[in-house]
Specification:
Helices cover 62% and strands 0% of the residues. It is built from one helix and no strands. The protein is elongated and about 50 Å long.
């Protein structure tokens, strides 16, 4: 049976929010860097 995550009022459900925010932060940092890297690679002719 699949484990389901339930938020409990008495328990700390702070971790999931923090991990989600960290994941979004990583995405917002990595996406422009990846786009910049692809632009540089394309400009230098790395893709042929």
């Amino acid at each position: 049976m699949a484990h389901r995550h339930h938020h409990r009022p008495e328990g700390p459900c702070h971790f999931s929010l923090m991990s989600l925010a960290a994941g979004r932060r990583v995405l917002f940092v990595a996406a422009p860097l990846a786009a910049l890297w692809l632009a540089v690679a394309w400009a230098t002719g790395a893709f042929g």
